[in-house]
Amino acid sequence: MTAARSRGMSLVEMMVWIAVSLIIVSVIGAIYLNTKQVTRVTDTISRLQENGRFVMHLLDRDVRMAGFRGCNGGSITPVNVLGSAAYPYQFNIGIVGYHDAGSGWSPALDASITSLVPPPLSGRDVITIRHIDGAGIPLIATMSATTGDVQVSAGTALTAGDLLLIADCGAAAIFQATAVAGGGLIAHEAGAGTPGNSTKDLGHVFGSDASVYRLVTRTYYVAASVIQAGTNALWSYSNPNYDGRSAPEEMVEGVEQIVYQFGEDTDGDHAANRYLGAGTVANWDNVVSVKAQLLLATVRDNAATNPQPYTFNGETTTPTDRRLRSPLTSMITLRNRVP
Questions:
Q1: Is residue 278 predicted with pLDDT exceeding 90?
Q2: If 0-12 CB within 10 Å is exposed, 13-18 middle and 19+ buried, where does residue 246 land?
């Protein structure tokens, strides 16, 4: 073997090889980091959008069903025999909102809501919706009298203590079930339970063309998140809570702000003549639609390289953090107050 063949790589060749290798590694590293950042931001935005869709789904579902009274809707005024007029049992008010501009709630927010843990944050709107929870259960027999028990099929999920609406196309009544027999016989005795019934008389003999529905009072509000510390979330408080949970439930993280405008029908044509904030609605029975404005923020604080200005409810704000924000708006019609 000659000396030229056994010489190996020169120092210059090695330095060139190292330099080229470093360039290649740097390019690959930069591409990897950029790809990782793009994927991270894309995932963050996707999660933000998914949270927004879920919030709108919750609000749309419940607001549309506010004040359900049976197949004739608003033309029926139910007989309410519940033994209490406390906030959770005011089913004559299908929907009501509250606004706090920093000086207190308008209208005044009930103590059962302000005492929740966590409590609603000031500067965010609160909405309470009273509606049915689940599908109707048809009667299988006519009541013996206006004070008679209500007969439905055996094996339903109804239990003693449920707040119920019974309705056909001509009448409706609100009462509490004091007992539900295994055969589907619903008793509604007076004086038992909480809130109990003031009378056993439902004011109408309901037949097999009627159905029974569970009723719920559900309040949505914004409070500090427990799941993602340092952020806000949408919370829901239901009474009764048919899944057995008595405490408020954190529904969606990253909800920074909610503002509601209520469409009020002032001339009886079932269309909104004006949109008002909660503190200026003259008659909640005349609200036929709701404009819900939400501001959502990413849970991660470093989703952007710089603070990102955003416009919400007509105001442009430059935050001090580096979260991404997305305003969403939904127009919701109350199905039970329009033809």
A1: yes
A2: exposed
